[in-house]
Amino acid sequence: MRAFPGTITVAIMTFLSTAALASEAPSPDEMWRIIKEQQRQIAELQAQLASTSARVEATDQKVEIAGDMIEQVSSNTSSTEYGRYGRTHIGGYGELHYNNLDSKEEIDFHRFVLAFNHDFNENIRLVSEVELEHAVSGDGQNGEVELEQAYLNFTLGERTASRAGVFLLPIGILNQTHEPNTFYGVERNPVETNIIPTTWWEGGVDLHGELAAGLSYDVAVTSGLDVPQSGSNAYRIRSGRQKVSEARANDPAYTAMLRWTGVPGVELGISGQYQVDITQGDQGIGATLLEAHTEIRKGPFGLRALYARWDLDDGDVIDASDPAAIGRDRQEGWYVEPSIRGSLWSIPGEFGAFARYNVWDNNAGASNDTEYRQLNVGINYWPIPDVVLKFDVQQQDNQGSDDDNGFNLGLGYAF
Length: 415
What we know:
- The chain is of the alpha+beta class.
- The chain has 2 domains: about 70 residues; about 325 residues, Porin, CATH 2.40.160.
- The protein is built from 4 helices and 16 strands.
- The chain has a 16-stranded antiparallel β-barrel with strand order 1-2-3-4-5-6-7-8-9-10-11-12-13-14-15-16.
């Protein structure tokens, strides 16, 4: 049979390739070395796999333990370490003032307040505030340390709760909400300082809640005022605050409030207090406070207005020391405060401008004109909602006393 040249060529190339592979095949020693190396690598891979499995198992155990701890903390309502700390809350506020007035030129860290609140459970809560006034306290110092609030709040139902302890009385606009970022002007308005003696707290018990949607109430029985009966501050309401410090308690005070917020951005409120004797048994002088206010915020526009009046009865013995004899059987005041608030260009935060006209008289029962009249105009700037910078100009037109004009600067914060 005749061989074709192509077939012969393929046969020759196949032979040569086989010979070459035969010449390159490893020897038995080399094959044994390769097998041993592969066994070593397999052993290392098995060890790594065992270590990884152990770590995964340990991680699973840690995740399970952490989950159990989280579940324990979240469901705990008694006294475990994690539960106690998780239900305790810290807050506070502070304000620094610079007053450049006819009566004074000074800078003062007016208030530094820390609040400590604790939820014992979903129905019982502690609310407390400790305040340092004027930066330093002690004998001969300007300031003092005060316990402004320390009460237990008990939830009694879906719309009813009760306070017991030391708490702010539900009167006016500022007395219960007076953090510096919540009101205009460096200083608190003079009506809610001299007629309603803000900040005003007493010790006792109250009941508060909702009568209907948008209609809330508060009734309280507490310690009362103990006004001096002689000197320049005789029967002056603000001078009668006892601050629940070994307070005389011959005659309690009865306070009630109704507040309507049925329309968003609108609050209407009335409150009153009656005390059988604001001299705590010395003179038998009863006192009645009536107060009404409104607070409106619609878009950028705001309005606050308030009226308050005290009526003091005659004493057991009518003489020159009686409230009527010095014109303090009636003490009253009012103010109105329009404002506007919003963003300005691309500056972060918000600006607010306000004007407030204040009239008050702690001697309104006197035959002569003893009114104080004060106009404040100024701006607030909130770079963030909890921080505020303030400026206002103050102009007084007083009867029977010197005017006190000038300007005020301030900064404040709350958290």
